[in-house]
Amino acid sequence: MSLVFVIPGPLRELAGNRAEVRVKGSAESASKALSLLWEQCPGVRDRVLTEIGEVRPHVNIFIDGESIKFTGGLSSPVRDGAEIVILPALSGG
Amino acid sequence: MPATRDVKPRNGDVLLLVGTMKGAFIFRSDEKRKSWNVGGPYFPGSAVYAMAYDGRAGRHRIWAAPHSMHWGGVLRSSDDFGKSWTNPESAPIKFPESAGVALNQIWQIAPGRETESDTLYCGVEPAALFVSRDAGETWSLNEGLWNHPQRERWVPGGGGMCLHTILLDPRSLDRIRIAVSTAGMYVTEDGGETWRPSNKGVRADFLPDKYPEFGQCVHKVVQSKVNPDRMFLQNHWGLYRSDDSGEKWKDVAKGVPSDFGFAMAIHPADPDCAWIVPLESDGFRCTPEGKLRVYRTENAGKSWDAMTKGLPQKDAYETVLRDALANDPLDPTGVYFGTRNGKLFGSSDEGKKWSQLADGLPAVVSVKAVSISLPRKR
To answer: How far apart are CA B135 and CA B123, in angstroms?
Structure first.
């Protein structure tokens, strides 16, 4: 069992210059899945979550193509083998 | 991403650390301050509200606080004048879980006094003070200020509820003054254990009580290095001087086109001399009459003179933000400021004549001016 994380360009330096990070294991929620990613890539954590554990407002996380904003946030379910994509939101000026 | 250039400073050079809404730049000149070359942009896309130079204990370290809209803010440093920057895995400045809030922005980086060469302070939003005692490796929240009983009644100004000014009294390691918009000034005299408001005489036109104990919208405060009792304060309406280290404030807004503004600088050797850039308040917040004028007092605020030579005096609707005016430590001191329209101006003769050093930068939010001392090559 494993999960695949797709890392956005600005954060790849903190993920060993990898675009994809495969982690072994399964997770019942997005939060637990991300914890597996932090074990391999601890530097990504503070860029994706605030210190109170919330997803930064201009970061989107998709699980198998669906934004977790619409599936329960960090409690969203995760299937074995899921692809979890981290992307910067369309924002700025 | 844009290509980045670097500067190669030599001993005695002056550096301008320029933070913008889209990255940071380093301007370099020799001590004549007539021609400048530019390094950057560093951290393109990130807002850099705070930069600082730490030349203590043989360092030549530049600090910057880039804040990405997407990925948050991380304090970073460079020991080679911007060629390379640290990128710590864990954000060095973050609130403890018990605080229940997240860091929004780092507004000020203040190296400690010469006698505490491993100490640094940061002022942040939401308004709080962080301190490092190991040259920036680890940081902790100042609990005395964070737990102040008045904090729950502080409210954010237009720029957010930021702790933007940190004044370290050179006479006492225990005395620090900070300013928060919108809370006013606070002072500690026991090294940060306890804090009290320090706003006597400072007006709050936007409150029913015009002279409250706290709640003033202080925009910037400066303190003389040679006479630390002398301070000037630019308020949200109101321009003040203190002769007793901030205990009492006297309005000195005579002869200025507006008593509203953000930025302020004080002469490194003359406590009677300070510079401001008045803005038309309250909604417009641009230079009055479309004239870009720096005002200088040489008599502790008894009068202010417009310094305009070399500055546009027609259709110049500029805004100079609270940290975007600075002076260097040379004699005569150089004065520099950046505008929200991306212009950077400098004067090597204390404001008598100005030159435009750059145009077309992203909106400038901070300017720091330093003289660097490097070991001579054998």
So the answer is: 16
The tokens 């709080």 sit on which residue?
B128
Report pLDDT digits (tens) over A7-62: 999 999 999 999 999 999 999 999 999 999 999 999 999 999 999 999 999 999 99
- Exposed/middle/buried for B75, CB within 10 Å: 0-12, 13-18, 19+? buried
Please, which pLDDT band fits residue B157 given cuts at 50, 70 and 90?
confident
B14-20 and A83-88 beta bridge pairing: unpaired
- Backbone φ, ψ for residue B320 (5° rounding): -115, 120
> What is the ipTM for the molecules in this complex?
0.94
Yes or no, beta carbons of A11 and B71 under 8 Å apart: yes
Q: pTM of the full predicted structure?
A: 0.96
Sequence spans of domains, chain A: 2-88
Answer CATH for A2-88 from 3.10.20.30, 3.20.20.70, 3.30.830.10, 3.60.150.10: 3.10.20.30
Substitution target in A7, A40, A49, A50 with the highest count of B β-carbons within 10 Å is A50
Q: Give how many domains chain B has, as a whole number.
A: 1
Q: Looking at residue B339, which CATH number applies to its domain?
A: 2.130.10.10
For residue B158, the enclosing domain spans: 14-371
Measured between beta carbons, the chain A residues lying within 8 angstroms of B69 are 58, 91-92
